[in-house]
Write a structure and sequence with these properties.
The chain is α+β, with helices and mostly antiparallel strands. Helices cover 36% and strands 24% of the residues. It contains 13 helices and 20 strands. A hairpin with a 3-residue loop joins strand 14 (210-216) and strand 15. The radius of gyration is 30 Å and the shape is elongated.
């Protein structure tokens, strides 16, 4: 069943459920389909919340995007929410006499938006106005508490249920990348991942200093930002709720989350109103997209979180910087070439080419070391025999022997590996959430660099035949087999084991984004060419030093 059909069935099932409950709701289009920042959404009259929302400037897949005429199921479903996003709740015993989470709201079409009104019958009126703002890729949300004749004083507490972005499927090695985040006007942002235990979590950012708060999926974000001081003053807290990846599916490893915003609206004097105004961003997470907004730097902390390499909860020093640098370089190359695949290839050549002088120097040092070790091998074997029963004495004799003959291994013999790994991790991280690669083709059979290359579909697991990871594994094993095995038994055994490690690594990355595998294959081809050049200039490598030679990734 295609994703577009599943989208239609999901929309129809939600509409049928709402109708069965006596909630006919209202469906509205914001902007024309295909225009930047356009949406189609269904709202509930019982909750004044969003039942579902489609980004009509995005398509489910390339197949849908290429159609001459589009149907409703072709557009990307961002929200599919049985709990209704933007639904308002209030604690028991509040000043407002009706429950805004389940009441008869009045709905008025404003042309560019909708106005929901709820009169509690005791002099207080709650208004929720949602106006489309295509330039900001979202909406302006005004929450107003109006006093038409109440003598009550103080403030009324509410909570606003933030959007839970749809997680359509597991996306690669780490599944869906989803976090909730809150960023202050100055200082570091706070973020939390969905809780596998389902516990309630907090985002510890002072509401009076909030820049934005919200949730993300792999490519998109839903962020609420105060428009003024009154909007910030109305906020009280940010609670994070863990929810299932999509409606009708039990929670799994690829959980998602939403922010529940605590609000406090002051009860105004009779004839007056209290308003808290916010901007709601519902769009892609991309530097290029953010640059089109009025405040390009506002949502940068989102990408800072996304570009921090995941390594068992450990923050890798310099990893975020490297990822951001690579994203910037990729964008520059794309502007020049007009193709993200070729931009990745050019980036690979640039990175590996810049490291060639260092790698050549290290290879030369290793060969000199190997030649010297070969000449001294008889004396080393004699030391092993002499101190075979005294390991401590053997170690001391070896230290003295190395000092006399100055045969310490070259410092930095594996330096190219240590320099390459941060680059690899940075690119690995950047490609996890690179919206700019979504539905972007390279050439041949690769039509979407953000998913596996899928040369052919299969009727059994793993459901697709992906050529790039298999090609990378074959190239790595081929390159390993070209290297001579060392004569030392322990080193020889280790080298033989390392020859087949790429098979395990390739299996782990089998369903990862083809953009990363394109980098890995290009890098391996470069390694083969580079090793041939080094071998031609320096000659064959001594087997005794083979195990110590750096193997580029």
């Amino acid at each position: 069943m295609s994703t577009a059909i599943r989208t239609l069935l999901s929309l129809f099932s939600l509409a049928a459920a709402a109708f069965a409950q006596g909630d006919t709701g209202v469906t509205k289009e914001f902007g024309a389909p295909g225009e930047t920042g356009s949406f189609r959404a269904r709202f509930s009259k019982r909750t004044a919340g969003v039942v579902w929302l489609q980004a009509t400037d995005h398509y489910v897949s390339l197949e849908q995007a290429r159609k001459e005429q589009h149907e409703q199921g072709d557009y990307l479903l961002l929200i599919d929410d049985a709990d209704h996003s933007l639904r308002m709740f209030q604690p028991a015993g509040g000043a407002f006499a009706k429950d805004p989470a389940d009441a008869d709201w009045q709905v008025e079409d404003l042309g560019d938006g909708l106005k929901f009104t709820l009169d509690d019958g005791q002099g207080l009126v709650l208004e929720k106005v949602l106006r489309h703002d295509a330039a900001q890729r979202g909406f302006v949300l005004d929450l107003t508490l109006r006093n038409t004749g109440s003598d009550k004083v103080g403030a009324q507490a509410f909570s606003l249920l933030g959007p839970a972005l749809l997680v359509p499927q597991v996306s690669g090695l780490f599944g869906e990348v989803a976090v909730s985040i809150a960023a202050p006007l100055e200082g570091d942002a706070q973020h939390v991942a969905p809780s596998k235990e389902g516990r309630l979590q907090q985002l510890d950012v002072a509401p009076s200093l909030l820049s934005f708060a919200g949730s993300t999926s792999r490519f998109f974000g839903a962020f609420l930002s105060p428009r003024d001081a009154a909007g910030r003053d109305a906020l009280t807290q940010f609670e994070v709720l863990t929810v299932a990846p999509r409606q009708g599916v039990e929670p799994a490893d690829n959980l998602t989350s939403r922010v529940r915003y605590g609000l406090s609206l002051k009860i105004p004097p009779k004839g007056e109103a209290t308003t808290a105004s916010y901007e709601l961003f519902l769009g892609p997470k991309s530097f290029r997209v953010f640059d089109t907004l009025a405040d390009p730097a506002r949502f940068a902390p989102v990408l800072d979180v996304d570009l921090n390499p995941p390594c068992c909860g450990i923050t890798i020093p310099g990893g975020r910087f490297m990822a951001k640098l690579l994203v910037g370089l990729l964008g520059t190359f794309y502007d020049f070439l007009g193709n993200w695949g070729f931009a990745i290839i050019l980036l690979t050549i640039l990175v590996r080419g810049s490291m060639f002088p260092l790698n050549f120097r290290m290879q030369k040092s290793m060969r000199a070391y190997g030649s010297k070790m070969a000449k001294l091998k008889p004396q080393l074997e004699a030391l092993k025999t002499r101190y075979a029963d005294d390991q401590k004495a053997y170690q001391q004799a070896m230290i003295q022997f190395q000092r006399e003959h100055k045969i310490m291994p070259p410092i930095g013999g594996c330096l190219p590996i240590f320099l390459t790994m941060p680059i690899y991790l940075g690119l690995f991280t950047a490609l996890r959430t690179a919206y700019d690669l979504r539905q972007q083709p390279w050439m041949f059979w690769i039509e979407d660099l953000s998913v596996s290359d899928q040369l052919a579909t299969l009727d059994f697991w793993p459901e697709a035949f992906n050529l790039l990871p298999l090609l990378w594994m074959a190239l790595f094993v081929f390159m390993s087999l070209r290297q001579p095995l060392p004569t030392d038994p322990q080193q020889r055994q280790m080298q033989m084991m390392m020859r087949f490690m790429p098979i395990l690594f390739g299996v782990m990355l089998y369903n990862y984004a083809s953009a990363l595998l394109l980098y890995m294959v290009t890098s391996m081809l470069w390694s083969l060419i580079e090793s041939s050049i080094v071998k031609k200039i320096l000659g064959p490598m001594d087997p005794n030093a083979a195990a110590m030679a750096p193997t580029p990734i």
